[in-house]
Write a structure and sequence with these properties.
The chain is 39% helix and 0% strand. The protein has helices at residues 5-14, 21-42, 73-77.
Amino acid sequence: MKITAEDVARIAHLARLELTPEKAALFAPQLGQVLEYMDKLGQVPTEDVEPMYTPVEHVTVLRPDEVRREFTREEILANAPEDDGQFFIVPKIV
């Protein structure tokens, strides 16, 4: 599809973009190439292709959201600088 600099200037005007004539002349062939490629993609037979969210299979790295007890209280308090046997003891702030 042949895109002229005037076409690009009109599209830029509709998009409320300011383009210099030099930029419009630069973008015209590039936009034409993009539209030609889109035409090629439109010719690909996709009737038998199942729609998908993404072509890449993602594996979640998150663990299941399940409640489980992995450590005992004693194990958790073992690294505390100070504890009373049940809770952490922290400095009083106020």
